[in-house]
Design brief:
- Its cofactor is pyridoxal 5'-phosphate.
- This is Aspartate aminotransferase family protein.
- The protein has 15 helices and 15 strands.
- The strands form three sheets. The protein has a seven-stranded mixed β-sheet, sandwiched between helices.
- The chain has two domains: 139 residues, Alpha-Beta Complex (Aspartate Aminotransferase, domain 1), CATH 3.90.1150.10; 274 residues, Type I PLP-dependent aspartate aminotransferase-like (Major domain) (Aspartate Aminotransferase, domain 2), CATH 3.40.640.
- By secondary structure, it is α/β, with parallel strands linked by helices.
- The protein is globular, with a radius of gyration of 22 Å.
- Helices cover 38% and strands 16% of the residues.
Length: 449
């Protein structure tokens, strides 16, 4: 095997994602992961670490599951590649589309495949533009998104992402408009949660009225915002947003790239956890548990009927849409989840994970621990009463994450927030270990401030 030095020498040619590229030039700043099994990963120094971020919110069933690896290999032996374009299809993509239609709520029965969450979201909006054009409403193109959203890094997806990421691109062509972030703890000062929800809905209604509903194609939202800091909206928010959209004939896209496939205890969270029926669900990540890059844009029958009517060429797709090996991984992953009842188990163990981490709220620099089940964010503050954050140059999240890693846990720093999104197969003992490592790490960082 290659030594850490060998790996990192070659790694200078690799451009990391979402990183301070300059800081990564320092010795010891990068970690090479060389192996993984179950809930754990191994680094190039031989350290075994709990994968507290599930790869990147995606390795839901755990690493190195033979069933998925064998399904991929078997598929490659039978049909290595064909695309689902023009008149061609293949049985594995077709079977996965049928399985997703069975699992997705309501009449979400038609599936377009892509190879990333970003692409799934781009596809959703492009499909709606096509849909409205076919309905004789080509001007109905605007998108309502939200501050704090993360929808991906392709041009359209980053435009729908919170403006801090998109560097002004969200203003391009005036297509994307951002509504308020539904974060009660930070933004609901002086209001009850119900009043805050009313205020969010009032703002949304004003924005719709000012842009003109006849110009708005859709609202896009994550059931729980992920990279925006794990923001759980107030009670009843999603159902009311969906009702408002329906009143104004605006389609609802639920970005379930993170929240699907068991992370919140169900295959999909929109209907089962939050009680609303979207017109489109986009998903990726847990769809294959990360074993292959695959995403799905799941459409209602009604949308599909319009885009598949006579005389309409559907000029959209990717070479790898419905890649056989990725589709095989998706099918095997879902079969494994069903066989082992992984989403159902995650309702109990995920709740334990959530309550264990929420127990860290007594620590002086922990402002809010939020999220649900296996999707948790810990926000650090300088002052618990004023909720003032630490100077960003202090890199408080990174400091805690580094301590965690020294103690055997990978967590993801995001400015002054720490994110945990582990595999869904953690034992109660491992959950207790994660809680203890976090408590020790935060306490040590506090002592060094
Ligand atoms: N949507 C959400 C909610 C995400 O968290 C992400 C990625 O983290 C994406 C979309 C983009 O997915 P991808 O990185 O596969 O393009």
């Amino acid at each position: 095997p290659k030594t850490t030095d060998d790996i990192l020498t070659e790694d200078v040619h690799l451009v990391q994602s979402f990183a301070d590229l300059n800081a990564l030039k320092q010795d010891g700043a990068r970690t090479a992961i060389v192996g993984a099994e179950g809930t754990m990963v191994t680094d190039s120094e031989g350290n075994e670490l709990i994968d507290g971020i599930g790869g990147l919110w995606c390795v839901n069933v755990g690493h190195k599951r033979r069933e998925i690896i064998e399904a991929i290999n078997q598929q490659l032996e039978t049909l290595d590649f064909y695309s689902t374009f023009y008149s061609f299809t293949h049985p594995t993509a077709a079977a996965l589309a049928a399985k997703l239609a069975e699992l997705a709520p309501g009449s979400l029965n038609k599936v377009h495949f892509g190879n990333s969450g970003s692409v799934a979201n781009d596809s959703a909006v492009r499909i709606l533009h096509h849909y409205y054009k076919r309905l004789g409403q080509p001007q109905k193109r605007k998108v309502l998104s939200r501050h704090g959203a993360y929808h991906g890094s392709t041009h359209l997806a980053i435009a729908m992402t919170t403006p801090e990421y998109s560097d002004g691109w969200h203003k391009a062509e005036g297509i994307v408009h951002h509504l308020r972030k539904p974060h009660y703890w930070r933004e609901g000062d002086g209001m009850t949660e119900a009043e805050f929800t009313d205020a969010l809905l009032d703002d949304m209604k004003s924005e719709i009225e000012s842009l003109g509903a006849e110009n708005i194609a859709c609202f896009i939202g994550e059931p729980i915002m992920g990279a925006g800091g794990v923001i759980v909206p107030p009670e009843g928010y999603h159902a009311r947003v969906a009702d408002l959209c329906r009143d104004y004939e605006i389609k609802v896209i639920s970005d379930e790239v993170v929240t699907a496939f068991g992370r919140l205890g169900h295959f999909f969270a929109s209907k089962d956890v939050f009680g609303f029926q979207p017109d489109i669900i986009t998903t990726a990540k847990g769809l294959t548990s990360g074993y292959q890059p695959l995403s799905a844009t799941i459409l209602s029958d009604e949308i599909h009927e319009v885009i598949s009517g006579p005389g309409a060429m559907f000029l959209h797709g990717m070479t790898y849409s419905g890649h056989p090996a990725a589709s095989a991984a998706g099918l095997a992953n879902i079969a494994l989840m069903e066989r082992d009842q992984i989403p159902q188990t995650a309702r109990t163990t995920g709740k334990l994970f959530e309550t264990t981490l929420k127990g860290l709220g007594d620590l002086d620099i922990v402002g809010e621990v939020r999220g649900s089940h296996f999707m948790i964010g810990i926000e650090f503050v300088k002052d618990k009463v004023s909720k003032e954050i630490f100077d960003p140059s202090l890199n408080i999240g990174l400091k805690v994450a580094q301590k965690c890693q020294e103690k055997g846990l990978i967590a993801r720093p995001l400015g002054h927030i720490l994110i945990l999104s582990p595999t869904l197969i953690l034992s109660p003992e491992q959950i207790a270990t994660i809680g203890a490592i976090l408590r020790e790490s935060i306490t040590e960082v506090m002592a060094e401030l």
